[in-house]
């Protein structure tokens, strides 16, 4: 049958994926984590096409609609995961049509499953304090403990993604000798840079780590700010483990580095910060992404009103 594969793979699909991933890496400068997610999504698509004995040049809109159904029912994926995979598949088909690898874009009319709106979960200020205090920082603290304290402080102080904080080099800290403050140069998605202030508690934790911890860890002459026990830049999973371990010691559940980013944004808005300033600090390309935090703030205001108003 025309359009069937020969059981040995699909060379057109392989070429398409290779060129699209190179385009995303070189021309759009996407992060390694984002590229890995795309690769996993396309791996699912590749396996599904193989199971259907279909080549990418023969697949039609109806086939892709069946793929959507299979993601939700046959593979049992959550709606959010299915939506991400379909968005990836639409992207690679659009690229294939634009580059002349495919005859047309059969994925353009395939609807993306609607994602349920979810509000970010922010920690209370007391919980953030408990999380930070769960990381030792006294005279007896070792290099790794000082590093972990500085990392958790920096995640909350800057609101940066864990990959952004772990991507910092020692020279990215810009100190202001006039007031003792500091800023950091954060490199975000797409290679965009932004400058974010560092709070005094975070700066104190950072100084303790740099002078009493990092020097002991830096056996390989790395420029990275946060080092692992082998003297190399910490990886993303190590950053997640640091936060999870601190949360366990503090008796907190479901806490990740992103929880601190959510808390950073929510606490700023609670304090009266302008949403566009928060957008800039978070590195969001669109203010609509930041505005979800204003819904969190609105819920907080309703809760306070319900507790305090005499005629609620």
From TrEMBL:
Xref: InterPro entries: CB, DNA_brk_join_enz, Integrase-like_cat_sf, Integrase_catalytic, Integrase_recombinase_N, Integrase_SAM-like_N, Tyrosine_recombinase_XerC/XerD, Tyrosine_recombinase_XerCD
Quaternary assembly: Forms a cyclic heterotetrameric complex composed of two molecules of XerC and two molecules of XerD.
Active-site positions on this chain: 161, 189, 258, 261, 284, 293
Stored PANTHER family: PHAGE INTEGRASE-RELATED (PTHR30349), TYROSINE RECOMBINASE XERC (PTHR30349:SF81)
Primary site of residence: cytoplasm
Protein name listed in UniProt: Tyrosine recombinase XerC
GO MF term set: DNA binding; tyrosine-based site-specific recombinase activity
GO BP: any one term: DNA transposition
UniProt keywords, alphabetically: Cell cycle, Cell division, Chromosome partition, Cytoplasm, DNA integration, DNA recombination, DNA-binding
Function noted in UniProt: Site-specific tyrosine recombinase, which acts by catalyzing the cutting and rejoining of the recombining DNA molecules. The XerC-XerD complex is essential to convert dimers of the bacterial chromosome into monomers to permit their segregation at cell division. It also contributes to the segregational stability of plasmids.
SUPFAM superfamilies, alphabetized: DNA breaking-rejoining enzymes
One Gene Ontology cellular component: cytoplasm
Taxonomic lineage from the root: Bacteria, Bacillati, Actinomycetota, Actinomycetes, Mycobacteriales
Every Core-binding (CB) domain range: 11-97
PROSITE patterns xref list: CB, TYR_RECOMBINASE
Pfam families for this protein: Phage_int_SAM_1 (PF02899), Phage_integrase (PF00589)
CDD domains: INT_XerDC_C (cd00798)
Tree of life domain: Bacteria
Family note: Belongs to the 'phage' integrase family. XerC subfamily.
NCBIfam families per record: PRK00283.1
Localization terms from the record: Cytoplasm
Tyr recombinase domain segment(s): 118-306
